[in-house]
Amino acid sequence: LLEFLSVGVSPEPTQLFYRGLYPIGGGKVQEAVSRPLRAFKKWGFLAADPPLLKDRMQGRERRGYDQASRLRILREFARGKKEFRLRDYLQEVRFSVSRQQALKDLKSVPGIRKRGRGKGAVYGSGSL
Fold this sequence. Notes:
39% of the residues lie in helices and 11% in strands. By secondary structure, it is of the alpha+beta class. The strands form two sheets. The protein has a three-stranded antiparallel beta sheet with strand order 3-5-4. Helix 6 packs across helix 7. The protein is elongated. The mean pLDDT is 79.
């Protein structure tokens, strides 16, 4: 039904979804620009906070990042760390992806090397 309703509707030019909510130049604006949620980005909007939904109120909040955003988050996160674990990356993306997707993300970024196996594996720059 949504596809039927959205036929012929094009995304907006990139802009903040929540107008006037974040102070210009503040941390939340930076987060909205560098870590936009997939549902908003698809339509040309930038937002760091999902709308208040019933699922969120029941503790099942899920934030979705598209692949480009996740990989940018991973590169920035890894740049500041000598070594880190898979769980650290999952915390950085707020557990919005599965462990398998996080492993795929880690394998896809050049320069991140894995040392060890299983849950004890450590990731970091090429000199590990």
